[in-house]
Write a structure and sequence with these properties.
Elements lengths: L11 H14 L8 H13 L6 H9 L9 H24 L9 E5 L2 E5 L1 H13 L7 H14 L4 H5 L3 H8 L2 H14 L1
Antiparallel strand pairs: 1-2
Helix pairs in contact: 2-4, 2-5, 2-9, 5-6, 6-9
């Protein structure tokens, strides 16, 4: 039995294709990076309110909606967009421990260091655009773990942390997403 393409993560080639399109066509107020797009789509899945694609799709591009060069390119982009969304949706629903935000990684000696900034910025863009209902205190605390990396006002807080403290904070993002998603399912 074969697995549906929607239930597969994007390949590096597919992510590169999406990155090129986002960088080329997203306006200043749009999402210009596939990591940020992944965070943005994940925020839709964690939002207690249902956000229809007709509402969240235009925000990807901002004020400047794309003009695809061909029908084939448009279809490919939209298919990959829905694949990313559906894959995250199914993983969060069925195997949440397997969920992995699409962070960038940099090599530091022999260690890969996670850089969650773009992903968290995308997540927070979704939170800000589509107002979330008031969260219980425990979930506000979870959201703050993403806000730390996703809001520009937190730069001084991050600069005061050591590299080890930052990576410790990065490790709190996935559990925060899982808690927010579980809450969204209950409401």
């Amino acid at each position: 039995m074969s697995t549906s393409p929607l239930l597969q993560p994007l390949s590096l080639e597919e992510m590169s294709f999406m990155n090129a399109w986002l960088e080329r066509y997203a306006g200043d107020d749009g999402i210009s990076d596939v990591s940020a797009l992944d965070g943005y789509l994940t925020s839709m899945l964690c939002n207690p309110n249902v956000i229809l694609p007709s509402k969240w799709y235009p925000a990807i591009w901002g004020q400047q909606q794309p003009v695809f060069e061909s029908r084939t390119e448009a279809q490919r982009f939209h298919a990959l967009l829905m694949q990313l969304y559906q894959y995250n949706d199914q993983v969060l629903l069925k195997t949440p421990d397997d969920f992995q935000p699409s962070f960038y990684y940099v090599q530091d000696g022999q260690q890969d260091i996670a850089e969650p900034y773009y992903w968290c910025e995308g997540f927070m863009k979704g939170v800000q655009i589509f107002s979330w209902p008031k969260l219980p205190l425990a979930l506000k605390t979870q959201l703050q773990k993403i806000e730390l990396f996703g809001l520009p006002g937190n730069q001084s807080t991050l600069e005061a942390k050591t590299a080890k403290q930052i990576q410790h904070s990065v490790g709190k993002i996935k559990p925060a997403v899982l808690a927010l998603h579980a809450y969204a399912l209950r409401t």
